Each structure stands twice: as structure tokens, then as C-alpha cells.
Amino acid sequence: MTGGHPHVGVTGAFLGLPSFPVAARSALADSVQRANLAHATGTIRAKRASVVGELDNWEQLRLAAEAIKDAALHRLDEHLETFEANATAAGATVHWARDAEEANRIVVGLVQRTGASEVVKVKSMATQEIELNEALHAAGIAAWETDLAELIVQLGDDWPSHILVPAIHRNRAEVREIFLREMGKVGRPAPGDLTDEPRRLAEAARLHLREKFLRARVAVSGANFAIAETGSLVVVESEGNGRMCLTLPETLISVVGIEKILPSWRDLEVMLQVLPRSSTGERENPYTSIWTGPAAGDGPRDVHIVLLDNGRTGVLSDAKGRDALRCIRCSACLNVCPVYERAGGHAYGSVYPGPIGAVLTPQLRGIGSDIDKSLPYASSLCGACFDVCPVRIDIPSMLVHMRTRVVDENRGGLPSAEGLAMKAAGWLFGDHRRWQAAEKAAAGGGKALRSRLFGGKDALRSLPWPASAWSGARDAPVPPAESFRAWWERTGGCDE
């Protein structure tokens, strides 16, 4: 058991996934998952609103966080070089990885050099992104997830479905069954009298993982932030499993996206205020671990940092899309998104689901596949995601930008039905005389046409094919018998 699903990374395995509308339709039919998601996201939303409401300077903190991340990205090359120099001076070894393949090759090689056959892992989006678990498994190395939610996903041979809570789609009864069925296959089994009480489930996970913590010689982590000023890495978490991984093993390998750089310690002050409130609804994270290279007699003796690009410099080159790199992986946008709450994370076909995934994933992977073309449309553009984003990423505007890119990059060939409809609408709206003629033609259809389409009801019944695909999923109101233009021409704007 190595965890993860072969189709959730951003390498090449995702290409077999269906488009978002197809995957979402299947997810909508899962009433248990929808109930789990509604309960979990509702709870997190309420907690976030409560702790954010305690601060009278919340908007100022958001503005500060936005400015800090923008400043870091605008001089990213300089900050990365500064980070490398300071981390190296502190005794760490820094590696650079252009893509997932290179990053995996570096990490696998480092583990093999130690002679270890297993690693323990801190929850890391970057390692999921590059499908590190699969690469380690192919090399005969077992990767054990130690975050509780990641453990549930791994034991259940499942996919992560949320940035913060990967097993958000599972309820307690399902978790109990997974623990009873799977724990004994890969280590200490769950107690036979295990219930679905949260305390008992957490205890079973703790006992199962303890033996892995104590024997592990190598750990793999990501990082929430990387401080250029000192070459330090920062991990925040809620359970303490991260602290175990970061202190007990002899070798620590951290895979860090290059956008995680912060210029100075002072910048971290702001981030450690906005991140916990936006993610877990806490005033501060229970565990904040910061390390700067190895230290004699304290923690790992061999520290490696893999700085990961994997498409990020390409995102940075897009003036309208680069703001997505400000993301600090808090998941607040997922918890308020009506589309995510109903469709769940698996429908997005990536480790980055929800609104941020809909703009970040197509930029990292490109928009050549059906699923990546569809992701920018996985939104109602309601704007709730921007309202809660602690670094003020304007996701709705970025979604529109990405939709434009999808259209522009897929011009040529046979046009789609939607493309033909939009082209016809553009021609019609391009000249007021055409529009007037269309209005008159529509009015000339008279009562017979209105009766056929609306059946004497207050809402649209059905349009003829192919427009029936549109009308069959909507309750459109009956249009007025007379247009405003016709009424004005007839009355001069005077009430009758």
C-alpha cells in the first residue's frame, strides 16, 4: 500500500479522466458523499467566519498578505537564489527540479542512498502533485502517509478530495470500516472493538502510526513557506504527526514549490495570522515547525530541499494567470464554493480541486486534455471564493481569462455546437438592425409558438432539438408578449 491514486497527479496519468461535467454528474448521484461534504464544509465555514469576525483588521491583513506574495513573485529568481545560499550555509543540500520526473528521480535516489525501504510522510500537496508515492513504490520503497485524513485516503485506496481535509468525502462509519479492514494488512491492526467515535478512531491511527514513526530512517515533507532571509522551511499542522516526521528520522527530504518563498521573517508574521483562520478556523496552528538545516543532536542529520518548478514559471509568465501562485493552500475557496460542495473534489481530476484548482491545474498542466479544458467552466462565477481568499486571488476574473484561453487555443477544426451558437449570436448582436428584425420575427410567431414552447405555463417547457439540451435543465420564465422596444415605439414611453 503506497497511497494515492494513479490518476490524481499532474504528470500524464490524468489524461484518461472524463471532463468535469461528466465526472460531476456521477458525483451528484452519490447522496452519501453530498451529505458528507455539506456537513463538513458547513462546519468549517462557520468556524472560519467566527475567528475572522474577531479581527477588526482582517481586510488589512488580506491586503498585506496579497502584497507580500506579489512582492515575492515579482523577484522570485532573486529570492530563490538567496534561499539556496542561506539554506546551504546552514548545512542543507538544495536540489532544483524542472518537472515531476526530475523531482521524483532526485527523491528516489536520495532514499536509495540511505538504504531505507520505507519513508514516513508529512501531508504534502507538492508530493501528491508529482505522484511521488507511485515513483517510490516503483522503486520498491513504501511511503506511509501520517496525516490522519491522508492515512484514511491511503488505506482506502482512494483519491484526496480536498486540499486541507483529503478524506472530507468520508464519514465516521466509513472510516471505521476502512481501519478495521486495512490497517492489519500494513501494520498494527485496528482494535476489534473499534467504534466510530472520533476519539477512538484517532487512537487507532496513533497506535498504528507510532511503530512507523519509531522505525523510520527517512521522512519526506513539503513546506507551507520557505524563508529566503535565513534558508528556513515552515510546516504548520494540527495533529503533531508532522513534528514526529520532522524530528525523529535521520534524513529529511522536503519537496517545495518555488512559489512558497517569502522574502523575510517579518512576512511570516502576516501569513501565520491569515492561514490558520482561513483553513482550519483556528486562531493559530497547534503545531508550527521551523527548521534551518540540520542541528547537532536535534532532528535529522541530513537535510535535503528539492525546489520544484513543474510548470510554475510558465504560470508566472502569464500576467493574468500568475496570481494563482499566491495561493497558500488554505482551502477556504473550496469550503464556500457551491459547485465543489455538490460535486466534490474527485470531479476536478487533480490534487488541486475547487475554485483554485480550476484555475491553477490547467495552467500547470496545459489545456490540451478534455478535463483541463473543462475546469475553467466548473464555476458559477458567484465570487464567494474571492471574498474569503486570504491573499485576495481574484479567481472569478481568472476563470474568465482561462475560458478565453481555452477558446483561443482550440480554434480551428470543426466548430462545436456551442461555438456555432455563439458565432450566430455575435452576428445577430453585431448590428441593431438584425436584432430588430429578429425581434419582429419572434413576435410574428404569435400565440401558437408561445403555446408550443410554454404549454400555457409560467416556465419554458422545451425547445426543439438541439436547444432541448439547454431547456431541459432549466426553468426559464415565459418571455413577454411584447418587447420593450416595440412597447416604446407604440406608446412613446407613456403608460396606457
UniProtKB/TrEMBL annotation:
One of the Pfam families matching this protein, by short name: LutB_C
Protein keywords: 4Fe-4S, Electron transport, Iron, Iron-sulfur, Metal-binding, Repeat, Transport
GO molecular function: 4 iron, 4 sulfur cluster binding; metal ion binding
SUPFAM superfamilies, sorted: 4Fe-4S ferredoxins (SSF54862), NagB/RpiA/CoA transferase-like (SSF100950)
GO annotation terms (biological process): lactate metabolic process
Organism: Mycolicibacterium chubuense (strain NBB4) (Mycobacterium chubuense)
Membrane is among the record's keywords: no
Location of the 4Fe-4S ferredoxin-type domain: 318-339
PROSITE patterns: 4FE4S_FER_1, 4FE4S_FER_2
Protein's UniProt name: (4Fe-4S) cluster-containing protein
Repeat in keyword set: yes
